[in-house]
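can u do me a favor
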């Protein structure tokens, strides 16, 4: 293997898309020194590597029910504490959101429907070792315009409050479980981008994106970690070019071979590619 392939992590990828397109998936995996590991090993190694560091931005891409939220919750479990909290934005009504209901229990998060909590409640929740909040605005489900306006107001309050109040000794990460809805439907462009542009090291943003179109380029450019689940949508694959540092054709080639699994409830979950922008470094991670 030539030195430029061995040392590719120290500089921008210089291969053209045409060159990569003519390579097999195995050749691409070797050329980019792509690691493969199971989920438990990946989470354990990631926790050890990032121990003592603050939050950083991450972006997770993939179609619905591929496993984005499950992975996000597994990741949060390895990094959040009462002094290093997560704030999850959930736009689904309580009875239609079993994943977030489970997250609140498993991660020891407090569920609230308005923002911000009072100073007394913050201290009380911290005393109970709460590791953050699930913010789920009340919805009537009969007045859709009113529900949208209310969710927009609450989520705007979360983003602005997190951006202005976070401190280096008490950092937070805001998790946009449906970033496309936050950015496009609720039209919180300025509030969403503010954290990505100048929130670190006090406040970071994690963006789970089902639809790559119309999203801010900062969701790709500012993220230190990018996770890509199997996705055959060409328009979404075009977004890979905005990640930087890795030839998008290589990403398309690698993700085309990701394995998928059908769950008992009929959903199709998949392996994923993890890209650490510092490097960059690529890893294919299994479902278990």
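np, heres the sequence
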């Amino acid at each position: 293997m030539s030195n430029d392939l061995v040392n590719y992590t120290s500089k921008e990828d210089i291969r053209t898309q045409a060159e990569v397109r003519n390579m097999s998936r195995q050749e691409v995996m070797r050329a980019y020194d792509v690691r493969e590991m199971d989920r438990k090993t990946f989470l354990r190694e990631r926790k050890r590597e990032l121990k003592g560091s603050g939050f950083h931005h991450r972006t997770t891409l993939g179609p619905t029910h591929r496993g984005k939220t499950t992975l996000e919750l597994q990741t949060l479990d390895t990094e959040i504490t009462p002094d290093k909290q997560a704030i999850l934005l959930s736009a689904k009504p309580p009875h239609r959101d079993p994943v977030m209901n489970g997250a609140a229990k498993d991660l020891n998060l407090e569920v609230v429907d308005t923002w911000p909590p009072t100073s007394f409640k913050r201290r009380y929740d911290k005393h109970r070792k709460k590791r953050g909040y699930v913010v789920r605005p009340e919805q009537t489900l009969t007045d859709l315009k009113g529900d949208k306006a209310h969710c927009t107001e609450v989520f705007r309050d979360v983003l602005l409050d997190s951006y202005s109040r976070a401190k280096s000794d008490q950092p937070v990460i805001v998790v946009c479980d449906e970033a496309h809805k936050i950015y496009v439907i609720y039209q919180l462009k300025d509030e969403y981008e503010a954290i990505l542009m100048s929130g670190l090291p006090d406040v970071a943003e994690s963006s789970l994106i089902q639809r790559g179109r119309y999203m801010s380029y900062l969701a790709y450019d500012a993220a230190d970690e990018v996770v890509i689940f199997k996705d055959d949508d060409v328009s979404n694959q075009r977004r890979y070019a905005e990640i930087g540092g890795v030839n998008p054709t290589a990403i398309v080639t690698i993700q085309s071979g990701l394995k998928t699994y059908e769950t008992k409830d009929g959903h199709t979950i998949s392996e994923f590619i993890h890209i650490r922008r510092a490097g960059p470094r690529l890893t294919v991670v299994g479902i278990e």
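The chain has a mean pLDDT of 90. hope that helps!!
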